[in-house]
Amino acid sequence: MAEGKTINNVMDFPSEHRDNLRILEALLFAASEPLDAESLKARLPKDANLNKLLGLIKAQYENRGVNLIKTAKKWSFKTAPDLASMMQKEKIVQRKLSKAATETLAIIAYHQPVTRAEVEDIRGVHFSPGTLDVLMELNWVRPIGRKKIPGRPIIYGTTERFLEYFGLEQVTDLPGLEELKAAGLLESRLPPNLDIREPQE
């Protein structure tokens, strides 16, 4: 295969990869939900190089109507971002989060695992139970256990749905403060104790 050549058909791949590529492509298309590496390896021949195969398929679909995407350590085919709005068959009523909910989500995302009391301490104000309910209804936040202190309060963290919605592979891919402000995801005035890291090089 000549360097730099774009392959548009799986049958054009080298013969040593072709069958494995076809199997992997079929698995990803047939799956009703994203699949992790272990699930894919279990369905492929033992000699298959999964990382290489995923890379080849990802490159093949890079400029197509669907792209191979990795979110929350799982792989799936998704509509290309620039076409997503055209695929909506129903009108979606967008729900704008309140300032309290937006700040609460940011605090949980960057400080997880965290208790409700710790969120309130960082924000500097109390918030209604409905704030967490909204975030859990969106399946962006969930209880992940209890803190080993008196009273054993519930601790909260983000979900795989949160990663998928914001296009993140893992929590460490969260943007820094200035990126959040530029995207309009946070108010210009933030809680004084809110510690949002800057992206690492």
UniProtKB/TrEMBL annotation:
GO terms for biological process: cell division; chromosome separation. InterPro entries: ScpB_csome_segregation (IPR005234), WH-like_DNA-bd_sf (IPR036388), WH_DNA-bd_sf (IPR036390). Keywords: Cell cycle, Cell division, Chromosome partition, Cytoplasm. Pfam families: SMC_ScpB (PF04079). PANTHER family: SEGREGATION AND CONDENSATION PROTEIN B. NCBIfam families: SMC-Scp complex subunit ScpB. This is SMC-Scp complex subunit ScpB. The lineage of its organism: unclassified sequences, metagenomes, ecological metagenomes.
